[in-house]
Design a protein that fits this description.
The chain has helices at 8-22, 27-35, 42-48, 56-63, 68-72, 77-81, 84-103, 105-108, 111-124, 133-139, 147-172, 177-186, 193-199, 204-216, 228-244, 246-252, 254-273. By secondary structure, the chain is mainly alpha-helical. It has one domain (8-273). InterPro entries: HTH_67 (IPR054058).
């Protein structure tokens, strides 16, 4: 087993994941899916299409922190408007236009992009399908030929692999979907209340009830901030997620992880600077 520096895999994932996540905030995806007739619910279609024509229950289970009533308002109705295969093709077109817009054609065609794609794909060879439905569904998709699309595809595999593991950690710790998003927001790394209310389907009252449950566990204080125990709780969740997500980074090795982190940081910095994410996104 390769010995990596502490949290090297997490750092690598975080920078690589930025390019993956940017797509779901991009006008490119909205435009491509809009051409298919999908005006609302683009996130559920775009991220869930790899699962095939599934029902709302599968999306709720695998996405974890969305209210089921909200999901059921879109799924499976969206599949009657556009098939999962059509959505996947539109997603790749959107990814191409987004990366060219945010990074520029020179970066997209650069040797560094090709190197990053090769490293990220090599890391995915260490992923595991077991108990990881979103990762496993995406792992069935073909790897795009273009290096920048291959990089995004690999970033998606790494993101969903870690995400599936994180859900295992949340469930084992008895953290439900509302508690997960409000404690993440309290850490300063999650979504702001505005974004939670508009994207996750929970009401202000439901979010407040989740915070009260966390206060009863001693994880939040009266002002809604993490207590010392709450900070440790979040750290423990991330450490357990690191353990469950170690495979790809151990497979890539310390030198590969370091180089992929270096390249991914360059791309991450560029897309953030180009305005890939709303300024009021974080809590």
């Amino acid at each position: 087993m390769t010995t990596l520096p502490e949290r090297a895999g997490r750092r690598c994932h975080n920078v690589v994941n930025t390019v993956h996540s940017a797509l779901y905030f991009s006008p490119d995806l909205r435009e491509e899916l809009g051409r298919l007739g999908l005006q609302e619910g683009a996130y559920f279609a775009g991220r869930g299409a790899a699962l095939g024509r599934v029902g709302a229950g599968t999306i709720t289970a695998t996405f974890y922190n969305f209210k089921h009533d909200m999901v059921a308002g879109f799924i499976p109705r969206l599949w009657d408007v556009a098939s999962p295969q059509d959505v996947l093709q539109a997603r790749l077109r959107a990814c191409d236009s987004m990366m060219r817009r945010l990074l520029g054609d020179d970066v997209v065609a650069s040797p560094e992009m090709a190197e990053a794609a090769e490293l990220a794909l090599r890391a995915t060879e260490g992923c595991s399908r077991s108990a990881r439905p979103l990762y496993s569904a995406h792992a069935d998709l073909p790897v795009p030929d273009a290096p920048h699309l291959a990089y995004w595809h690999a970033a998606t595999l790494l993101r969903e692999h870690r995400g599936d593991g994180h859900l295992m950690a949340l469930a084992a710790a008895g953290v439900g979907p509302v508690e997960a998003i409000v404690s993440h927001a309290a850490s300063g790394k999650g979504m702001s209340e505005k974004w939670l209310l508009t994207t996750r389907g929970w009401s202000k009252e439901e979010l407040a009830a989740g915070r009260e449950r966390l206060r009863e566990r001693g994880l939040l204080d009266a002002d809604g901030k993490l207590t010392e125990a709450g900070v440790k709780h979040r750290e423990d969740l991330e450490d357990e997620t690191d353990r469950l997500d170690a495979g790809p980074y151990e497979h890539l090795g310390a030198a590969g992880v370091e180089r992929l982190t270096e390249l991914g940081t360059v791309f991450e910095t560029a897309v953030v600077k180009a305005g890939a994410f709303p300024p009021d996104l974080r809590g």
